[in-house]
Every structure is written in structure tokens, then in C-alpha cells.
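User: Can you model how adenosine-5'-triphosphate sits in this protein?
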Amino acid sequence: MTKTFGDKVALCDVSFTVPSGQICGLLGPNGAGKTTLFRLLMGILKASSGELEVGGLDAFEERVAVKRLIGFLPDEPVFYSYMSGRELLELSAGMHGLDPYDAMDWIEPLARRLRLADDLDNYAEDFSRGMKKKLGLLLAMLHRPQLLVLDEPTNGLDVESTHLFYDIIEECASAGTTVLFSTHLMDHVSRLCSHALIINEGTLVAQGALADLQALHKVDTLETLFLKLTARPHQA
Ligand SMILES: Nc1ncnc2c1ncn2[C@@H]1O[C@H](COP(=O)(O)OP(=O)(O)OP(=O)(O)O)[C@@H](O)[C@H]1O
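Assistant: Here's the modeled complex, given as C-alpha cells:
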């Protein structure tokens, strides 16, 4: 699958699979194409050539159905300014055809674990960056999607919240949810993920189980592997 913006090739012949029920880290330097890949997965963008499927459905042509399979946390979640966190969750539940009371019964314990429950009745626009990320995760998980797609999920989270966030993601994966998340934090991927995709300048340079990738490239750490596969010449 290839995605161009005018003359710019953002993703070039990228072909990948995310193993079901696993946590997969999407890594790449700034501008590598990670957010573009997520926007293609969500049907926000259309591939310039090739295909991208989610659960056997075309990510663009069948994007309404695909959105039922995916929970997406954008890097910078944006909310309606006049709605509280709770109202946003209830609205989202309705859009997914869920009973809002049942949905809140399932999501409120998670809000409590993330220390967000006491703020749910405040306007989401007034939330701090980390609080917006937490609400974004709850919105992504609300309809119990098969695939969680998280764009730099721990950006803006404090240390304790990062641990709580990852605990929840690991529980989702244990329950069968597939997780794909982008980050620049190699140690987080090493700790959390079984698999990784590495993109460099729009090209997929590695994909597979972390242990296999490190053995294949004869490196001890993911960071060394990343630096090896994404080395670029200095700018003049
Ligand atoms: N709408 C667009 N129009 C033109 N170019 C774009 C557009 N969206 C992305 N690009 C370009 O595509 C490339 C990939 O961008 P993308 O945002 O996917 O990178 P990224 O890996 O998410 O980067 P970062 O780690 O900095 O968030 C960049 O060169 C970017 O400038």
C-alpha cells in the first residue's frame, strides 16, 4: 500500500500484518509515516494504491463498519467544547448502538482506575492534556473494539498514569484485543509489546516479534535495532 500527498511519498509499498491479540509497537522517526498509517487504518485517508484491510474489510471503502472494529486514540484528542466527559462517553455509546447505562457501568471502573472518575462531569475541553488522553482511551475502549489503535498514547501522562494506562492495555490484550500503538519510547515497547513495526521515511524496514528481530539483526536492544535501521546522513 502506498500513500502520496502530491509529490510527497508518505508511505511506499508498505505491507504488514498485526498479529491478532498481540500488542504491537509502531516505531519510526519524526515524519516516518506513523500518523498517516493510522489515518489510513481509520478510513480518514484513502491509499493512493494498494489495499489496507481491517478484519477482512477495506479500511476506506468499508470505513463505517471498520470503525465498529477499531477504537482509536488520536495523538491530540479534540472534544466538543460544551460537553462533559460523561456526556461524551454517553454520546459515543449511543453512536455505537450501546445502552449508555450499560456502557457507563463498564467504563466507570476504568475511569476510577485512571483517576478520572471525579472529573467526568466537568467540561472535557477544560481537562489537562493527560486527562484528555485518559478520556480518549475510555472513548476508544467503550465499544470493546477488536483492535485498539493508539497514537502516542502516553504523551502527557505522568508516571503513575502511564503504568495504569499500560496495565489496562495489557488486560485488553489478554482478553483478545489486538493493540497497535505508536511511540518514541523504546523502553515502553520493550516492556509492553510482543511485536513491532518500524517505519523509516515511509518504508517499512522491520516487522515481527521483538526477540526475532533482535536476533535477526544481531543486536541486544530494541533501541540499537531502531538506530541501526533508521540511520540517516547528516543534513549539510
Ligand atoms: N496532509 C498532508 N499533506 C502533505 N504532506 C503530509 C500530509 N500528512 C502528512 N504528510 C507528510 O507525510 C510524512 C509523514 O507524516 P506523519 O505525520 O505520518 O509522520 P509521523 O511518523 O506520524 O511523525 P511524528 O513522529 O513526527 O508524529 C511527513 O513528511 C509529512 O509532512
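A couple of observations from the model: The CA atoms of residues 115 and 161 lie 8 Å apart. The pocket of adenosine-5'-triphosphate is lined by residues 5, 8, 10, 28, 30-36 (CB under 6 Å).
User: Helpful, thanks.
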